Amino acid sequence: MPVRCRRILRVALPCLLAAGIAGPLDGCGEASSGSAPAEAGGQVEEADEGAAAEKQEEAAESLKNRELLSLLEAKKREEAAEAQATKTEHLADAKAKRREQAAEKDAKKREAAAKAKAKAKRQQEESQAAANKQRQAAEKRAAEVKKQEAERAAKQRTTATVTTTTPTPPAGKAGQ
Q1: Angle at which helices 35-165 and 2-28 pack, to 10 degrees?
Q2: Using one digit for the tens of pLDDT, what is the confidence trace for 1-20?
């Protein structure tokens, strides 16, 4: 509605000015009967030309405003797209960071499990080595004991054979 009022004022104002200025000027000049109607027709033509020029101006201004509006809308769309792209990038970065942290955490868990497994294996090997060492020591002691018993038995046999092999003198011949 305000645009129509402006148009009406733009068209009506020049017409009123032309009529208001032309009226008093008609009476000031020469009085010729033929020139008055010609001047009134000229004013109407000027008013029509002024209205046509004003319509062209308004059309040009309207076109210019539409172009500006389309530029502004395009700029807003571009800014919105950039904001959305930035938001998407931030979300993607955050998601990637969470994935990376989860992967690091998982890797640490696997590493800790591997260390624990290696430690358990090492402890098992150490306990087996200790058990083998004790078994070998027990076998060695048992072998020494057997050896000592064999030596005692051999000693006892040699002392028993030595005592049994010594000749005893005959009883009747010794006194003759």
Answers
A1: 160
A2: 565 666 676 777 676 666 66
